[in-house]
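Suppose a classmate hands you a notebook page containing two proteins, each written out with its sequence and a corresponding row of structure tokens. How would you begin to make sense of it? This section walks through that situation. The first entry is reproduced here exactly as it would appear on such a page.
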Amino acid sequence: MLIDKISYVFTIFIIAIIYLIIWTSLKIMNKDMKSNGKKSSVNKSAGFEIIEPGNSSNLKKGGVIPIKGEITIGRKEGNTFILDDPYISSFHARVYFKNDDYIIEDLDSTNGILVNEVRIEDRTRLKIGDIIKIGNTILKFI
């Protein structure tokens, strides 16, 4: 009699665990379906510290330019980050976030972009501490 009661309680306990596992699995699958399989991304904040402002009177040494999403750098209006420098093209560079990396891209500028004193051909991934030279302006990626 006692063994039958223990067996009955144990069976109910096992069934409850199985239902809990199924319920948790369905809850996770429902969440994945609602997000269309997209991973939630962590907002990374990055920016450029101004090491040498060059000819740009609107920049101050030690200042920080935040990068949110995508910025463009150039001499003309319409850029996110305007530099007053004769060695900078109208639309010189673009910095954007892709696949957990910040990328700097040369927009076919005349004088190019130096990253850690090496001229980039097209685009390159930025790493914390990289030194970027655009015209007479020197920036540090932070």
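The notebook's second entry, a different protein, reads as follows.
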Amino acid sequence: MAQPLVNSCCRCYSLRSGSIATGLLGILLSIISIILIFTVRIDFKTILMDWLPQNVVKIIYALNLVMTILISLLMIMGVMKKNHFFMMPWVVLGLMLAIGLLISVIYNAVVYFIDGYVLGGSLWLVIGLLSVVIYVYLWIVVYSYFVTLKNENDRGRYSKQPYRR
């Protein structure tokens, strides 16, 4: 039986509240990002397929964000219904996104440094790594609630705590 990594969110909120807030934050940031993708004039690039046209890259990013919204809604529904199976896609995707975010932050900072933009690279690195830390913490909160619900469902929600020495 796995143990939660943390017992509360920010030391004053429940894991349930933190999980709901994380899902809502993911939805809000995804909606804002979709709006920005199609309204702000930015050249989007991909690390591996830099030959793709800008419109295709924007559509790929937007589809990823729509999937994030759907998976976050599913996770929130899992929290509300106390069903850890609904939370599983978010937990798995969240871990992959954390790794992707870290790679993206490091890659972009290195590109800035190579191009001679030391201040831009430094800011990208500091703000990016801070974002990674916050994201990983929120993932840990959701994962901890996921484990709590899984443990409850495995032993029966209303049974006693297992005996531990």
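A careful reader of the second entry would note: Helices lie at 15-39, 54-81, 84-114, 118-155.
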